[in-house]
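Figure 2 data, in text form.
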Amino acid sequence: MLLWAPGYNVFADLGTLPVLLSAYALCMLLERACLASGKALGVWKIDESVERLEGQEGAVDLAGLFR
């Protein structure tokens, strides 16, 4: 609502940065919690052939894709 208020500048508001940083931190925390609970509950199953590829040089870093 404040974006359409006359004379309001979102970048001059001192509360913008803390709100954005806390929202970003909350999203990162929620993502990590969901991935950890999914792994703990066995939601995802990785094929054994894909796991063998992780040890080979030049293979795709699958663990890096989910960070």
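Caption note: The chain has one domain: 2-65.
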